């Protein structure tokens, strides 16, 4: 089948989108992906990238809207034009924003089926980011967009069961067409390996979006005291995009003010393969979350990658994470204070058996759940839209 995807991110760094595309390509499907421009070539000839030429930046709310609208029209026109020559059986659209699903309007009119992949619930994310009240105009616009986007799609996918509950509570009518495909690491890329013998530093690692809801300030403020106890300590930070926002600039200033440029290293954004390499050479994964309506329900893909690579993780104790990982699997923090962070790092540094036990216990999660099982669910959804495999009277098995 011919399948198109639309995603407002860089293909090489978006593990979820890459896993979908690569499993489709392995199964002889042809995949065109409209995404952000970068210097990267997919591993499979069955995957073609259509680049949006404008660099992504984090500024204010107005800029977000402008960015989204510009990309929307780029994808809308591209899909319409490409659909004249290519019959796409499926258009798989990834939020954010939710209204990107309407870029598939013309293909839908010509018979394409639409999958909407809700990576995150946008109203909760907006509330987390901007701390507005329920009457906020943009918040209500996001809710309006979400409702129509979900109704427009033939099938909805989301990233965890908490998100599924949120969507069904808001829109009970989508219960029969929503499925969960969890963000488990690709076993072909994230291969647990021993740390390189050339790397003799003790490395903490964070990768991903640099925003206030991912509380890195307490960790940075703890570094001066930690290096007195652990002189070889380094903290590697890998941002998601080159031009992160105001919180990123404040973070860099804090690092400079504390004279930590030697111990805190901000690396450039990396493709998934580069992330796996950096995790291999790290000692502890860091996942700090500012608890709110959004972060209480997320399961960060980067946490799952740390766990899969058998690295101990220091993480904020949230409803979602404590519901998945039992005591003795992650080193949970009740508060994201510098003191609690110092205690956690020191404890894992001094007690290698504890660190190994945490990593091994957390890894047991993947005995039941893994990308192989999740990719099978996805392929069944894809097969449902292939008339040679399924009859029109059948429905996909959703979970």
Automatic annotation (TrEMBL):
Spans traversing the lipid bilayer: 62-81
Gene Ontology terms, MF aspect: glycosyltransferase activity
Pfam families in the record: Glyco_transf_4, Glycos_transf_1
Keyword set includes Transmembrane: yes
Swiss-Prot/TrEMBL keywords: Membrane, Transferase, Transmembrane, Transmembrane helix
Domain annotation Glycosyltransferase subfamily 4-like N-terminal: ranges: 18-184
Glycosyl transferase family domain boundaries: 190-364
UniProt-recorded name of the protein: Glycosyltransferase subfamily 4-like N-terminal domain-containing protein
């Amino acid at each position: 089948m011919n399948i198109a995807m639309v995603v407002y991110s860089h293909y090489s760094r978006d593990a979820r989108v890459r896993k979908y595309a690569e499993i489709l390509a392995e199964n002889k499907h042809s995949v065109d992906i409209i995404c952000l421009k970068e210097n990267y070539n997919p591993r499979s000839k069955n995957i073609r990238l259509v680049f949006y030429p404008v660099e992504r930046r984090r500024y204010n709310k107005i800029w977000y809207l402008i960015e989204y609208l510009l990309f929307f029209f780029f994808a809308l026109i591209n899909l319409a034009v490409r659909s004249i020559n290519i019959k796409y059986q499926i258009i798989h659209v990834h939020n954010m924003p939710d209204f990107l699903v309407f870029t598939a309007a013309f293909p839908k009119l010509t018979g394409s089926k639409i999958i909407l992949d809700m990576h995150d619930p946008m109203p909760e994310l907006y509330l987390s980011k901007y701390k507005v009240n329920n009457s906020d105009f943009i918040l209500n616009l996001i809710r309006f967009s979400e409702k129509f986007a979900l109704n427009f799609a033939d099938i909805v996918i989301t990233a965890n069961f908490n998100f599924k509950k949120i969507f069904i509570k808001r829109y009970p009518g989508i219960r029969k067409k929503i499925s969960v495909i969890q963000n488990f690491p690709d076993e072909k890329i994230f291969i647990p390996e021993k740390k390189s013998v050339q790397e003799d530093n003790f490395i903490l690692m964070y990768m991903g979006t640099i925003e206030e809801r991912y509380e890195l300030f307490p960790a940075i403020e703890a570094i001066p005291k930690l290096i007195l106890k652990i002189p070889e300590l380094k903290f590697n930070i890998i941002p998601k995009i080159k031009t992160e926002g105001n919180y990123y600039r404040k973070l860099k200033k804090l690092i400079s003010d504390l004279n930590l440029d030697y111990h805190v290293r901000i690396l450039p954004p990396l493709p998934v393969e580069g992330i796996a390499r950096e995790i291999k050479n790290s000692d502890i994964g860091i996942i700090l979350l500012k608890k709110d309506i959004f972060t209480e329900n997320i399961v960060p893909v980067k946490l799952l990658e740390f766990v899969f690579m058998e690295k101990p993780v220091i993480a904020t104790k949230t409803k979602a994470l404590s519901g998945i990982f039992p005591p003795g699997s992650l080193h949970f923090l009740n508060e994201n204070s510098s003191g609690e962070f110092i205690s956690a790092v020191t404890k894992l540094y001094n007690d290698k058996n504890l660190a190994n036990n945490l990593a091994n216990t957390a890894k047991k999660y993947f005995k039941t759940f893994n990308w192989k099982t999740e990719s099978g669910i996805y392929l069944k959804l894809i097969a449902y839209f292939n008339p040679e495999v399924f009859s029109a009277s059948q429905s996909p098995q959703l979970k």
